[in-house]
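Illustration 12: Endonuclease/exonuclease/phosphatase domain-containing protein.
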Amino acid sequence: MGQHGMSQITNNGKCLINISEESNLVIGGTHFKHKNIHKLTWTSPGGKTKSQIDHIIINRRSDHYLLIAKLKLKLNKSCTRTTRNQRLDVTKSNDYTIKKQFQCITNQ
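Figure caption equivalent — predicted structure in token form:
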């Protein structure tokens, strides 16, 4: 986006740059040099596509500074119970009279 953003800029990125320039704003995460691993904020489920989709936009004359935070979360495991599939009693399907009754019902 900015001087030190990722090299590929989409149409939405160009719009964001134009709006920022017109409004005297700075895209804070790209104003200073960072390693590429710190610029990327989204990875596809397969891990092949990586992109920078989160941006911090501030007033050019602001006294705000970009902060970095590392969070460690301990999440409880959620238990999901699977329901058993109901098994059908197929032994009765060999009985000739029951087979005929079933055929009569399904042909109606």
